Amino acid sequence: MLRFMPVGDSMTIGSAGEHTWRYRMWQHLRDTYGGPFALVGPRETLYDKAADAPTSYEYADPDFPRTHLAGWGEGWLHMVPLIGEAVRAHKANVLLVSLGLIDLGFYTNAEQTAENARAFVAEARLANPRIRMVVLPVIPNVRTESDTAFAAELTRFNELLAKAIADLDEPRSPLLPASLPPSWDSNHDTYDGTHPNASGEHRIAAAFAEAMHQAWDLGKPYKAAG
Fold first, then answer.
1. How many other C-beta atoms lie within 10 A of the C-beta of residue 82?
2. Homologous superfamily (CATH) for 2-216
3. All residues at 6 or more sequence positions from 83 whose CB lies less than 8 Å from its CB, including other chains
């Protein structure tokens, strides 16, 4: 059985009442993978904006398997000390990783963030030497449209992330780069300039799905399930 663990920040955990890209990915795998799979992770909640805490269980579809390793305001920096135990405890064998925006916005520069990404890979492999990882570059948000320094830092990090993936890729534990969703529009694909709406959720899920289909022949080309 393939055991997928979504790892990410606020764009991955989602907030109360949302579907999230994790849900769109689950729909896609359910409809196209053709084998047993599970979504796994140590956390189950969504972020509750009213409580300003990750305490909500108000998923739009109660049948969705909601486990993950994602957190509002958490990035590579925060996930490095958590990923090893999460992989071991939940027997994850495929990580779907979307991290970096919060790091660059609040915690670390591009070079420091890239070092944390490398440390994350090392910790995941200590827990499972055959772990597979699909890694999404940082998607530009509305801040990049007005803050040229931040936009440059984001571009620099994505370059360093691509290099890290190329450097660290190995046959027994492949590192697979997903592509940025083409023509991403923060006005059309998000509800606040950063967090994905339904369109954005599908586009992020498609980025992961298309990478796995093309590189590993896993599933089929992504088709929005609704």
1. 17
2. SGNH hydrolase (3.40.50.1110)
3. 7, 69, 95, 120, 123, 124, 127
